[in-house]
């Protein structure tokens, strides 16, 4: 059965007419949602802490800014766009106490609801719009007239208007231009975490590092190893992005395609599937969430150790030197978790 995609014609913008949307947070996703909504004619207020450096950025962009609790009280729709690990404390202190009947409480990721960190009162609607891309792309693609696809979900429709308002929100940030797919909080959370860990971040990072190390340990130049295992990866992924595996294989040489068929399964075999299933189980039963929450509550020492170890990996040092010689890439240098780019992308900070 083919999943149904929803587009502009399926979303009625009048569902948000006369309503105020509070965007809580102004980082990568927050700035994009707020500005896209604003330019779509939605009344937007940005809720931030009194000392937040983002207050000036939001105000300079022409947006109304207030403290979080005031933004919640003044809004009809509240979208929480602060990091997963910050949401519970902020919700408990400044969001939950000010929710009222008729409010639509929204999320861009289901983590805190799926794992019981946040339990909204029964008087409010609960929904989600989760763009499938980082905030700076959500913003730039919208400005160019396009949209980033998204997932949407309605967890609770107390008012009878939740679904219409959620779809109107998705349209106002531009996502229904590309298409939105209906899901649930549980499905979005579990598939999102699994995708990040198995392929998009964890699997790809580990594969690239191991391939690089294999070549260097065999005596090949680190610079050559970098180009072969990391630099060219973008070129291959771009082909997949446009036309799937078939277009990638159509575009590469027959030698590369044959190597794909005969060597790929030697590396990614059934034992990898079994470990992927174990990773998925840890996500489904809450083991990963509990570990991540405990890590944050205990000072994030393991996280910082792991971050620093990979930050200093040889592939990062070699790649940094090579990218610095290619300014057309707009190379980014990450130091202590902060990205410095030759041409800074607005709102790119997490």
Summarize the structure in words.
Helix 5 (111-114) links the parallel strand 6 and strand 7. The longest helix has 30 residues, at 222-251. This protein is 54% helix and 14% strand. The protein is globular, with a radius of gyration of 22 Å. The two termini are 37 Å apart. Residues 341-350 have low confidence and may be disordered. Strands 1-9-8-7-6-5-2-3-4 form a 9-stranded mixed β-sheet, with helices on both faces. A two-stranded antiparallel sheet has the order 10-11. The chain has 16 helices and 11 strands. The chain has 350 residues and is of the alpha/beta class. It has helices at residues 28-39, 54-60, 68-74, 84-95, 111-114, 135-143, 162-172, 175-178, 185-200, 202-217, 222-251, 254-267, 270-284, 287-297, 301-311, 314-324; strands at residues 5-6, 20-24, 43-47, 64-66, 77-80, 104-107, 125-131, 150-156, 180-182, 332-335, 338-341.
């Amino acid at each position: 059965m083919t999943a149904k995609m929803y587009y502009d014609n399926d979303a009625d913008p009048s569902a948000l007419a006369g309503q105020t949307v509070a965007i809580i947070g102004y980082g990568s996703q927050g700035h994009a949602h707020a500005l896209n909504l604003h330019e779509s004619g939605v009344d937007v207020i940005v809720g931030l802490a009194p000392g937040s450096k983002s207050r000036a950025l939001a105000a300079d962009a022409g947006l109304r800014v207030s403290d979080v609790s005031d933004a919640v009280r003044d809004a009809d729709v509240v979208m929480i766009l602060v990091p997963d690990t910050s949401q519970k404390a902020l919700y408990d202190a400044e969001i939950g106490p000010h929710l009222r009947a008729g409010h639509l409480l929204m999320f861009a990721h289901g983590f805190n609801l799926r794992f019981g960190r946040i339990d909204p009162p029964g008087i409010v609607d609960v929904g989600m719009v989760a763009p499938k891309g980082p905030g700076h792309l959500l913003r730039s693609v919208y400005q160019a007239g396009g949209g980033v696809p998204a997932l949407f979900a309605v967890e609770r429709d107390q008012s009878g208007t939740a679904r219409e308002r959620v779809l109107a929100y998705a349209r106002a940030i531009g996502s229904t231009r590309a298409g939105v797919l209906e899901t649930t909080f549980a499905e979005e959370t579990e598939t999102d975490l699994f995708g990040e860990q198995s392929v998009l971040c964890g699997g790809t990072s580990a594969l690239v590092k191991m391939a690089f190390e294999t070549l260097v340990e065999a005596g090949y130049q680190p610079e050559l190893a970098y180009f072969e295992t990391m630099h060219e990866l973008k070129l291959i992924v771009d082909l997949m992005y446009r036309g799937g595996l078939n277009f990638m294989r159509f575009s590469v040489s027959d030698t590369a395609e044959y190597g794909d068929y005969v060597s790929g399964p030697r590396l990614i075999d059934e034992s990898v599937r079994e470990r992927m299933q174990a990773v998925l189980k840890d996500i489904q039963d809450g083991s990963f969430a509990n570990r991540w929450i405990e890590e944050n509550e205990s000072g994030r020492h393991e996280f910082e150790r792991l971050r620093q170890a990979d930050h200093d990996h040889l592939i990062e040092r070699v790649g940094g030197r090579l990218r610095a010689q290619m300014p057309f890439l707009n190379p980014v240098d990450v130091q202590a978790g902060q990205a410095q780019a030759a041409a800074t992308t607005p709102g790119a900070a997490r």
